[in-house]
Structures are given as structure tokens and as C-alpha cells.
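FORM 7B: Structural annotation worksheet

SECTION A. Query
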Amino acid sequence: MSDSMDRVLSGASWAEFCDRLKAAGEVILRPEAPATEIDRAEGWRYLSRLTRIGLEMLLECADPQFPAFYSASHATAKIGADNPDNLYLNATVDGAREYRLTGTRGTVHYLSFASRVNRYAIDGTMLETGALDAEQLVYNADGSFEIYLGGERRHANWLPMTPDTNFVIVRQTFLDRKAERPAELSIECLDATGWPAPLSAEVLDRRLQAVAAFVNGTAKTFADWSLLFRAAPNRLEPQDQQRYQRAGGDPAIYYLHGYWELAPDEALVIDTVVPDCVHWNLQLDNYWMESLDYRYQPAHVNKHSARYNTDGSVTVVIAARDVGVGNFLTTAGHHCGTLLLRWVRADHHPLPRCRVVRLDELAGSSLV
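SECTION B. Predicted structure
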């Protein structure tokens, strides 16, 4: 009997999986992490969400011969300042194989494809091995398209991969979710034959270990980031973009991460000029770098939804309550957290002016 067979039949594989998930709780209990009711509750929920993502990514959808798109970040499962304007689609691939992605464009504002080496379960990195966006595609007469992944280089609609590539990510970015129609996509491995093999003890054991490693590694990576940003609270300063590219960021995006910390009677006011760009947004996140619940409350503002000042600049007010000035984002019961400003394909990357003011001083002011 193989070691994996013995571990699965005896229950040791499952017990170890549960023990490693339990160990991930050490990240939530770090001494520097906020110990308030909401931050702790969201921290434990965060681990449950990472577990859901990990099971989908590394167990259910982990066969590169029979790939399927799933979403690794969405409204109720979030990683690393997930973009409220995005529909993320992901698929597991094998860089030694060739794939065909087919779809229709839809009307979504921004659509991009990237191949990656997903090492979140190992060292928190996700290096890019190829990139393609909707503007580079050649379309059929009916608006449909095909993209080939890996294999021999093609003149059009080709997404490169390397032997280490194991992950494909599709970003669909909306200006207005209610008005735009997302692309419809599917993916297939061109040399797959037959049906998926029955689940074996070796596969289950290996994949459960990978899921546990993913939960631990991802939680640690972004808790480390929050601690890093905390060193300069309530400011948005120049940052090393390579850090974000190594973690899977889009090279077309300039990221400005920050940390906010406010008393109930304070507001963080952010003023910025707006560059010529394809898209921009500013979002508020909790300490665990999850976007706040943008489905029901003002947790982000973007190029379409923002109210602009007369000179074309934007003022964002982050506070516990809305005093009727600027573009209001709610702290939603938190006293601290992280935030992110994205400039997408911008002609320059302005640094906003950030200042903390008393809420009662804002009421009735113009801010400009």
C-alpha cells in the first residue's frame, strides 16, 4: 500500500489538512494585528474564504488536461485588495501543453489575459509568463475570437507560456457593472483524450496539502503587506511596483497601496489630479486586504462613478459617516485597514495629497 493510500484510508491526510488550517490562525493572532471584534471576526472569515478559494483552485479545478474557468476573487472570497470593478476568471494549465480559449467579447470596458507561474502556496509569488489584451485580438465577423495558449508562436491571438506556467488569469474590468456585458469564455486542452481519471488517494493527498499551503502562504503574504503599509499610515507614497508584479499584479496597472487609521470623528481626505488613463479606481479594504462589501455600501469609486471637481481633479473622503462633501467611502465599522489606488494605462502616475481632518470641520466645506 502506498503512503498516500495509507494516509487517505486512515484519515491522516484529512487530519493533517485540518491541523494546517488551524495553524493558519496564527496569522490572525499576530500581536500587531488589530484585536477588535470586527477585525478578528473578519480574520477568521478570511481564512474560511481562502480555504474555499484554495479548494476550488487546487482540488476541484486542478486538472490541467480538463481545465475550467473559476473565480479566485469575488464578492464573498477575496485576495490581496481584490478589485471591486473586476470579474476575475482563472484556470489551471500545464506549460508543456497547448490550449484554446474561445469566447465572445461582450462590452466590458477592459479585458486582459495573462499566463502565470502560481507559487502562492510556496512563496507568495505569481510571475507573469505571457500577456494579451482585447485590443490586440483579431475577431471573427460575429465578434467571437479564439486564443491559443502555449505551443508554437502564432502571429495573432497567441498567449505565450513557459514550461513552468500553471495558471491563467483573465481580468474583466467594468466602468459600470449594471450597463456592461462581460465576455463569455471557455478553455480546452488540445491534446486531452478521454475523460478525467477517477480521484485517487495520491491526487487527493497532494491537493489537500497544496490547499493548506495556499491558505497559510496567502494569509501570511498579505498580513506582511499590511504591516509594511502600516509604517506610513494615511499616506499614499511611491512604491516598488515589482513587489506587486511578483504577486500577480497587472503590468498595465500602477498600484498605490496604503494603510488608513482613523478615530470615529476623523476623516481621511484624498485629493488627486486624474491622468489620461483607461481606468482608475480607489478602494477601501480591511486589515486583511479584502475589499469592503462594495455590493451594499460605498467602498470604492472609479473613473465612471466619481464626481469630479471643476478642475478635473477628484476628492475622496474616507470616514465613518457621510457629511456630504467629496466622494464618500465608508469605513463600515472599522477603525483601520488598507486602501488601494490604481492607475490603469495612465500617461503618468500622480501621487495624491492625503490629510486627516475632523469630520465636523468638513461639513459644508468645498474641500477644493
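SECTION C. Observations
The domain at 3-189 is CATH 2.60.120.1600 (Jelly Rolls). Residues 201-230 form the longest helix (30 residues).

SECTION D. Sign-off
Analyst initials: ____
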